[in-house]
Specification:
alpha/beta; Arc Repressor Mutant, subunit A; Glutaredoxin; 32% helix
């Protein structure tokens, strides 16, 4: 695993919005007294949703809120790669899967498009709208190549569709998530090949079970 460090340039302070603080309190209340440290991951996620990334002052605020050492919060945020330690694009954070199934299906072409339209990976674009990264398997291998963009999966991508998606985000649009090959969920390309008869899975062909007669209660043990 690569070394993950906090950004060199940090804001002077951090404060929860009223909405985020209410959600934070809701999460903390889920844990028994003395176990509030366990809320650190969902609260880091709330901070990232509020700010777009996790700045260093937020770690100190969170440590105080959960009464835990700052170093423990730092250990968590630097371990889990879902937490962004530097500012990311305001329009889109594009995470292209580069693991074997996606690579064999053309993920390198997707990365070339990102590089040409956005700039170097892991760097905020000059216009502040985009960041793109190469990541490990995102678990959508059937629909390779794919990318997670912000909170959603974009699947069955090509260089052309990736380029259009970036252009749409830059224009302020909201490109649709899901398959860009017309695939339904994770069916084979061209449509389903098995379970074609709905009766096989909708319960209509199931044999009805006769109601059993009431049985006498068992005798109590001697």
């Amino acid at each position: 695993m690569s070394v993950r460090r906090l950004a060199k340039v940090q804001p002077e302070s951090f404060a929860f919005t009223d909405e985020t603080r209410a959600l934070a309190d809701w999460w903390i209340a889920k844990y028994p007294e003395g176990r509030q440290h366990s809320a650190v991951i969902p609260l880091l996620w709330l901070i990232q949703k509020q700010e777009g990334w996790v700045p260093e002052p937020a770690l100190r605020v969170l440590a105080d809120l959960l009464s835990m050492p700052m170093i423990r919060v730092l250990e968590v945020v630097t371990f889990y790669t879902m937490f962004q330690l530097e500012p990311v694009g305001k329009a889109a954070l594009i995470q292209v899967c580069g693991t074997t199934p996606c690579m064999l299906r053309g993920s390198n072409d997707l990365m070339e498009v990102c590089k040409s339209k956005i700039g170097p990976k892991d760097k905020l674009s000059a216009d502040g709208l985009f960041t793109w990264q190469e990541v490990e398997c995102l678990g959508a291998c059937v629909n390779a190549p794919m990318a997670q963009i912000n909170d959603y999966y974009f699947e069955d991508l090509t260089a052309e569709s990736m380029g259009q998606i970036i252009d749409d985000f830059r224009a302020g649009k909201a490109p649709k998530a899901g398959s860009y090959a017309g695939r339904h969920t994770s069916e084979p390309a061209g449509g389903a090949l098995t379970l074609l008869d709905p009766a096989l899975y909708d319960g209509s062909a199931a044999k009805k079970i006769e109601t059993l007669p009431n049985l006498p209660a068992p005798e109590p043990a001697a």
